[in-house]
UniProtKB/TrEMBL annotation:
InterPro entries: Leu-rich_rpt, Leu-rich_rpt_typical-subtyp, LRR_dom_sf, LRR_TM_domain-containing, LRRNT
Keyword Transmembrane set for record: yes
Lineage of the organism: Eukaryota, Metazoa, Chordata, Craniata, Vertebrata
Coiled coil location: none
Name of this protein: Leucine-rich repeat-containing protein 3-like
Pfam family membership, one: LRR_8
Domain LRRNT: 44-78
Bilayer-crossing regions: 229-250
Signal peptide: 1-43
Keywords on record: Leucine-rich repeat, Membrane, Repeat, Signal, Transmembrane, Transmembrane helix
GO cellular component assignments: plasma membrane
Organism name: Notothenia coriiceps (black rockcod)
Amino acid sequence: MCTGWGEETCTSISGGRRGRGVVLHPWLCVSLLFSALWGQASPQCPASCQCAWDTATVQCSDAGLRDIPEGIPPETVSLHLERNYIRSIPETAFRDLLHLRDLHLSHNRIDSLASGALRHLGPELRLLDLSHNQLRQASREEFGSTRAKTRLFHNPWHCDCTLQELMETLNLEAETVNGIMCESSVRGMGEGSRWEDPGSQGEHAGQSLVKLLDSGVNFCSLQRKTTDVAMLVTMFVWFFMVIVYVVYYVRQNQAEARRHLEYLKSLPSPRKTPTVVWEKDEGDEKSLVGYEDTGIR
């Protein structure tokens, strides 16, 4: 055991001195003990990543990853996942990273975000980089209430009411906000609104979303007009179908009535049965007077 500040001596279990050991500085003992304890307590670094424990940084850039790696230490402050092949972000990917401040996801192939995928990020998040991906649509449900500076440029966005509402809630980076371009957009009234239609990408394709909104374009208004027209068309179709049914029903009844009348006309006429008329005379004798038509069939 260590005795004093300048030397370490080894004693036997019975307490007898066995000899002088190696002389160690007491601070070196403390340092070795701390290193051993830290090595046991420190979390493991995910495969294909490099971890800098002094800055709580996990570096997974250019690692050929196709999914968010598992086992990211919960104490991570800065996470670099740029320049990989990640396609989607599951809902629980960052659930335990409550101290995360910088999240770099640029230059991937992300085309979908699970509902609430970024909702679990804590209030300490300062930067969220999703630039240079394949995102077309996103909503407030996926981003939650994050107030981090957000980069969304160089994505093939479909500009519609949902994206407009998202832009109004995010803290977009001023230097890159004009790079959020509409690859397609909600089309004019009556033309539909699905970006998958290859026939038309909308009149605002190729323009900056923020500039369009600043100029007074309201995608929510366009979408409501499209919805109103669709409702009117639907109501007209139903009304037309009701009229057609009523006309058909009346004509069917008329045809049935005509057939029934023709059937009645085709029946044979009733035969008249003569009735013998007798007349009593004074001697209670009956004499035949004639016949009377009773009209009985």
